[in-house]
Amino acid sequence: MSKIPVQRVDLIFEKITCKEIFEKVLQSKPEEIIQSVIDSGLKGRGGAGFPTGLKWQFAAREKGDDKYIVCNADEGEPGTFKDREILDEVPEKVFCGMAIASLAIGAKIGYIYLRGEYKFLVPKLESKLADFHQLMKDLGHDFRIELRLGSGAYICGEESALFESIEGRRGEPRNKPPYPTKSGLFHKPTCINNVETLVYAVMIQKYGAMHFRELGTKDSRGSKVFSVSGDTPTAGIYELELGMSVREFVDVFGDGDTKAVQVGGAAGFCVPRKRFDETIIGFEGVPTGGSMKLFNSSRSMYNVLHNYLDFFAEESCGQCTPCRVGCQQLLKGIEAVKKGEKSHKYLDELVKLAATMKIAAKCGLGQSVGNAFSSIVENFKEEIIY
Amino acid sequence: MFAKTLPAVTEITIKKLYSFPVIVIQFTKGKSDSITFVKSFNVLKKTAMIINEELVKEAVKKHGSSRAALIPVLQELVAGKNYLSDLDMVEVAREMNLSAADVYGTATFYSFLDTRPRGKYVIRVCKTISCSMKGKNSILATIEETLKIKLGETTADRKFSLLETNCIGWCHKAPAILINDEPYTELTPQKVTEVLREYIKNK
């Protein structure tokens, strides 16, 4: 049972002046900026949760003049829509975060990779970027940001696939290592961060590392923006302290009949009602990029699983066999069991397949399919079979 | 320039007729000029190639000719008509010194870089879980009934194409669709009919 009830926080959408904060940051040394981010305990807010300060430190330590800051605005995880609102409401904070990162690691160019489905934001972003570039000029900091659009591929949210896409190729993930901080965009040292992470980096400069660290738990410092949808009377985005239990979350956002919560989108875990109390929303429990989807007792978990598998089978880049074939086999498999063409024992084979994909797939997509698959099959077996 | 490449032609202009471009070619015919729509496929094809060349050259001039400019160039060409023709891709390959297969392979990876002919407005209905839970099927049925096309098809006047897509990031206001770049959310069958009527009437 967690000690943190559902607490609203207001760091992300608070209006700031980039000029004030950046002038202060310009007085600090890169090592000091990086140390403050490390001290805050900030971890990536896109879903993978890598410690941000460490990432900046690795990139800073690489030698070379060509380094890049990349903002991952390819928010494609089903059920996540918080980056869209952040970019719509406070884009200047995202640019400011990128500028702070550029100072910390020594980069002159930044890219924002914006998913094609958010193309309607481009006019506003370009207008705000013009102001930002003027500010950089006024403050004498050599850093400019360019926009790059995606074209409808979920996999381009994966960092190395994103680089491939900016470089003009199919969005097929690379082998890692080497990791982006060593060899990223154009195979140069790159620091790639989620939209939300960059805004928190700004707020850490404004309020100090300790203010951020005091929120959340020791494994999940700070707060996070959640995208809540599904069977809930209060769908929308909410910035909350990390570390609450799913029970506490459902008590606030559920419709009174919640039977499952999908934490982390299609790539995340399905938490059944019997595990609401013991499951923590955070890096020590079930981590998430923010997607929280509530299902009530009217929903068929077979339909939910089928929807997720259909999604993955379509969005798989196709280059590695475990994912390309695995996703299709999982999808066909549950259809066959449902139709009675295969016995329910076949589900055990499929669970083994999902576990194999977790170790054999080349990137996070193939490795994550098993999360939703196993958690739904194990907890809702009857609905899958009958 | 055109007069040199096509016989007996004095002028080529592109006019818009019912929202898609029509090539008007002026021939000299005896003592007076006359305007004819070209019936010869070869002449039409060659003309289309010349026009394509110009559009591609402009796109490459705007975005550059390095590999990293490929997707912005393709996006530029798609923005006009919602798909990439074979001619587009061959011309891009020529301008950017790539193989046509490479351009095709890159374009076909991305669902918004369509290589099949689409209409002026591409309607993309989100089919991922939140929209699916909140009535996407009835929205799809309404659109099919209103436009008299099925999923995957384009209307006869080439104005609307109907496709499905994955999560577009409006889950709290499901069901949602995109029409070209514009999102429409919190849809009901009535609302979506109104939206379509606006498009049919005004554009």
Characterization of this structure:
The complex is a heterodimer of chains A (386) and B (203). With 386 residues, chain A is an alpha/beta fold. Chain A contains 15 helices and nine strands. Chain A has helices spanning 18-26, 30-40, 52-61, 82-89, 91-105, 122-139, 159-166, 195-207, 209-213, 246-253, 301-315, 321-339, 346-360, 364-379, 381-385; strands spanning 68-73, 109-114, 144-149, 190-194, 223-230, 236-241, 258-263, 269-272, 291-296. In chain A, the strands form two sheets. Chain A has a five-stranded mixed sheet with strand order 6-5-9-7-8. Chain A has a four-stranded parallel sheet with strand order 3-2-1-4, sandwiched between helices. The radius of gyration of chain A is 21 Å and the shape is globular. The model of chain A has no long low-confidence stretch (mean pLDDT 96). In chain B, strands 5-4-6-7 form a four-stranded mixed sheet, with helices on one face. A three-stranded antiparallel sheet of chain B has the order 1-2-3. Chain B has 203 residues and is α+β, with helices and mostly antiparallel strands. Chain B has eight helices and seven strands. The radius of gyration of chain B is 20 Å and the shape is globular. Chain B folds into three domains: 1-39; 44-117, Orthogonal Bundle (Arc Repressor Mutant, subunit A), CATH 1.10.10; 121-202, Glutaredoxin, CATH 3.40.30. The longest helix of chain B has 23 residues, at 41-63. The relative contact order of chain B is 0.10. Chain B has helices at 2-5, 41-63, 70-81, 86-96, 100-107, 129-133, 136-147, 189-202; strands spanning 9-17, 20-29, 32-36, 121-126, 160-165, 177-179, 182-184. Classes of the chains: A alpha/beta (386), B alpha+beta (203). The A-B interface holds A 75-81, 83-84, 115-120, 148-154, 165-171, 186, 227-231, 235-237, 262, 266, 293, 299, 303-304, 307-308, 311, 314-315, 317 and B 66-72, 74-75, 105-106, 109-113, 127-130, 132-133, 165-174, 178, 181-183.
